[in-house]
Amino acid sequence: MIRPATPADVPAIVSMIRELATYEKAAHEVRVTEEGLRDTLFRDKPAAYVHIAEQDGEVAGFTLWFLTFSTWRGVHGIYMEDLYVRPQHRGGGHGIALMRELAEICAERGYQRLEWAVLTWNEPAIGFYDKLGAVNQDDWYRYRLTDEPLQRLAERRD
């Protein structure tokens, strides 16, 4: 079963974010708090959204996403920040069900893109996405500013 997250799901979502970060060898980068995530997801105008995969009343996985906008297409799209299914629930169709949910949202709302990133070494995820017919955008580099470099840029006055 796939459903939108509720405030009661926040502890499980934070736990899965930490599990995912550990898997991606980036646990040291996690700074999310339950309070912060609850505010992000459940304010009047949410900054992000989560859908939950549930099996027998247990949270099996989640996807966290937010809206993007394509200047070339002139419409919104979805950027999937994370897709995670707990190891004991993998192979049960939860990943494809979560992806299908986002595709249905795109179709219903007229969004024309569903995008995400995957680590180059994450072969199981790459194989999963390839089977869906997703196309690797290898002609684009992703850039990111965080922490001190982001602060330096914000303070730059030249």
UniProtKB/TrEMBL annotation:
Enzyme class: transferase
Keyword hit for Acyltransferase: yes
Molecular function (Gene Ontology), one example: acyltransferase activity
Pfam families: Acetyltransf_1
Domain of life (superkingdom): Bacteria
Keyword annotations: Acyltransferase, Transferase
UniProt EC number: 2.3.-.-
Domain N-acetyltransferase: 1-155
Record-given protein name: GNAT family N-acetyltransferase
Lineage: Bacteria, Bacillati, Actinomycetota, Actinomycetes, Streptosporangiales
